[in-house]
Amino acid sequence: MGLTIALNRGRILKECLPLITAAGYAPAESLDGSRKLVFPTVTGGHRLIVVRGSDVPTYVEYGAADVGIVGKDTLLEHDTAGFYECLDLGIGRCRLMTAAPVGVDISRGPLRVATKFVRAARRYFEAQGRQVVIIPLAGAMEIAPLMNLADCIVDIVDTGNTLKANGLEALETIAEISSRVIVNRASMKLKFDEVQAFIDGLRAQAARLAPAAPGASRA
Ligand code: PRP
Fold first, then answer.
1. Residue 3 CA to ligand 1 centre (angstroms)
2. Domains of the chain, CATH where assigned
3. Is 33 left (phi over 0), alpha (psi -120 to 50) or beta?
4. Alpha carbon of 28 to ligand 1 centroid (Å)
5. Which of 10, 33, 61, 113 is deepest in the core (most CB within 10 A)?
6. pLDDT tens digits along 146-197
7. How distant is the alpha carbon of residue 189 from its chain centre?
8. Cα dist from 23 to 18, 28, 30, 177, 205, whole Å
9. Which pLDDT tens digit goes with each residue over 84-100?
10. Is the CB of 158 under 6 A from ligand 1?
């Protein structure tokens, strides 16, 4: 029985496709520029589905996909009880960080925090005993402090160029991020051999191909 493999569209996809291909799960046609979202694999009778990162855990949790590849930043926002997190691929490396306008001290006082990483941000500031108001945004968090919507942001930082371009500086690291393989709980039992082969194949290719240095790539 083949696997349904959920992939995070966008930059993670670009980085994980060489791994997937080298491990024997190459799509039968090119994903580049295609409007299709479901691709059979060349061999093995598997299929790849390409969805938004935040939807990968949902597909895997409900068993619509057996396995998925998704950034740890996304997993931090998801209730991970519904699936197993089995493998760190070591690709898509970046950091989840706090950032504020250059020179602004946010170490004291009440704080308005703009982010799409609501759970991770809340956990982080709660652990510090900080009173914060979390302002959920879907993206482009960097302009929130400029528009006086927030005092700081919690966002993904890779090269730091986006922060710099918007007059912000990175402050504290909340989490080191990389791409992970997640597995549906029932699939782990019912398709054990296929799932294990998938994980072993990716582990071997990740060890061979993954960039070693953080910052060399991002999720
Ligand atoms: C991410 C993140 C930052 C940027 C950081 O956005 O939200 O905006 O990348 O990268 P840098 O440090 O190399 O500049 P992305 O482009 O992934 O789009 P998103 O808003 O959909 O997350």
1. 31
2. 4-92+178-212 (3.40.190.10), 95-174 (3.40.190.10)
3. left
4. 30
5. 113
6. 999 999 999 999 999 999 999 999 999 999 999 999 999 999 999 999 999 9
7. 25
8. 8, 14, 16, 23, 6
9. 999 999 999 999 999 99
10. yes
Mutate to test the pocket of ligand 1, among 76, 162, 173, 179 (most ligand atoms within 8 A of CB): 162
**What tokens appear for 21 in the block?**
């291909």
| Alpha carbon of 21 to ligand 1 centroid (Å) | 26
In 3D, which of 82, 104, 95, 198 has the Cα closest to residue 151? 104
Ligand 1 centroid, distance to 185 Cα (angstroms):
31
pLDDT digits (tens, 9 = 90+) for 107-142: 988 999 999 999 999 999 999 999 999 999 999 999
- Taking CA atoms only, the protein residue closest to ligand 1 atom 19 is 139
The tally of CA atoms less than 13 A away on the side-chain side of residue 126 is 7
Cβ–ligand 1 contact at 139 (below 6 Å) = yes
Q: Which two tokens stand for residue 140?
A: 């482009």
Specify the residue for token string 């019912």: 190
